[in-house]
Design goal:
Blueprint lengths: L1 H15 L6 E16 L12 E15 L3 E12 L15 E12 L2 E8 L21 E9 L2 E9 L18 E10 L3 E16 L2 E18 L2 E12 L9 E9 L4 E8 L40 E12 L2 E11 L11 E15 L2 E12 L1 H7 L7 E10 L2 E3 L1
Organism: Gaoshiqia sediminis
Protein name: Alginate export domain-containing protein
InterPro entries: Alginate_Permeability_Chnl
């Protein structure tokens, strides 16, 4: 692997200089995770065996900072144990670039950040890095930033094939064009963010390629009243989906964090009923969906799009002391729109249990067990068997050493 060697050489050269006007750091991440699945993301069938597999994320992170420039390079290898032969004779499993960006400070409060980068905003409902997924998410985008009493970020990206002919894009990404603006203002006990995102997906037609645009706009707020901390999301979606259907959708969330680690919340993502003529299904687009609607990922993790939506009533308990942390979450799921004329909207109840142990500042173990108590309506949506015993468990080791600083 040539790239890490080059980075290490550059770091040593910087350290050997007589005077240093810049900062350089080199760190890593090693994250193997073993999962046991029997009904994750969808109900298991009555004769389905549980699967047991281990995936691993390995990263090398290089950061350089000077008075006017900040850069980051993240090399990443993601694999399932056993997917690569012991005697490797090809480059099919080569290391990929997860992040490679440079931020130039044109003035103390104004900068331009361009390149492959993670987009992480607010609670990550619309734009997040999907850090739970081993591969995570990053974008090829340019972001203009203003940071002073307020924060204002404007991002833009346009994708085409490397052949650069006919303005055609048929790559792997979810969009051809994207533009967004994010505003944030903070006070002592409150904060408010406003987001506008214009998402353009390519559609191939006989006479060429066009772009269907959808618009997502709304906000995220946080405030404190006494001993309670509240979070609120409110988003609307309009425009067209990839099939050209009109979109009229919404997302609402209200969450209250109480004393002793207890959280109560409700989220609604509107959906399209069996008798609706418009697309009323809210799409959380590029958010970190794993953190919102149960860890078994039944909803909006590569699934449940353009569907009946979701109502999620939940209660969470989180405890931490010294090196130990515990959690227990309960989600009550129902559809936001009608599944069929006679189907009940209740889908099921999920329970997530887990613990973490911090061995040192750069190493920790975590693990969890989840199970789904599904209803007949879940079978209508997902197939499978609600009585097959639907559960998921994981055990993960995370080590994040700093090699050079």
């Amino acid at each position: 692997m040539k790239q890490p060697i080059i980075i290490i050489v550059v770091a040593l050269l910087l350290l050997c200089g007589k005077k240093s006007y810049a900062q350089f750091s080199l760190s890593g991440e090693f994250r193997p995770r073993t999962e046991l699945s029997h009904g994750a993301k969808s109900l298991a069938s009555d004769n389905q065996d549980a699967s047991l597999f281990t995936s691993q994320r390995t990263r090398l992170n290089a950061i350089y900072k000077s008075e006017k420039v900040l850069t980051m390079l993240v090399l990443q290898d993601v694999r399932t144990w056993g997917s690569q032969a012991q005697l490797v004779g090809n480059e099919d499993f080569a290391t990929s670039v997860h992040q490679a960006w440079a931020e130039v400070f044109l003035a103390p409060e104004f900068s331009l950040k361009a390149g492959r980068q993670e987009l992480v905003y607010d609670d990550q409902r619309i734009l997040g890095n999907v850090g739970w997924a081993q591969q995570a998410r990053s974008h090829d985008v340019a972001v203009f930033k203003y940071q002073k009493d307020i924060s204002l970020h404007v991002g833009i990206a346009h994708h085409e094939n490397s052949t650069i002919t006919n303005n055609i894009f048929d790559g792997n990404d979810a969009y051809k064009d994207i533009q967004f603006a994010w505003f944030n203002k903070k006070w002592d006990d409150a904060g408010l963010s406003l987001l506008f995102l214009n998402n353009g997906v390519p559609v191939n037609e006989v006479d060429g390629q066009k772009v269907n645009y959808s618009q997502t706009f709304g906000g995220h707020g946080k405030f404190t009243i006494g001993e309670f901390k509240f979070s609120v999301n409110a988003y609307l979606q309009t425009g067209e989906d990839v099939a050209g259907n009109d979109i009229s959708a919404h997302n609402l969330l209200l969450e209250a964090i109480c004393k002793h680690g207890v959280t109560w919340g409700y989220e609604r993502l509107s959906g399209t009923g069996y008798d609706d003529s418009k697309n009323k299904s809210f799409n959380p687009l590029y958010g970190t969906n794993h953190k919102f609607n149960g860890f078994m990922d039944y909803f909006f993790v590569g699934n449940h799009l353009n569907n009946v939506g979701l109502n999620n009533i939940y209660a969470k308990y989180n405890y931490s002391k010294d090196e130990l942390s515990l959690y227990a979450h309960v989600h009550y799921f129902s559809s936001a729109a009608k599944i069929t004329s006679g189907a009940d909207r209740y889908l099921g109840t999920e329970v997530d249990l887990g613990a973490g142990w911090k061995i040192s500042p750069e190493a920790n173990f975590s693990g969890g067990f989840s199970f789904m108590i599904a209803d007949d309506s879940m079978e209508l949506l997902k197939g499978g068997d609600k009585s097959a015993g639907n559960y998921w468990a994981y055990l993960m080791l995370t080590v994040t050493p700093t090699f050079i600083k």
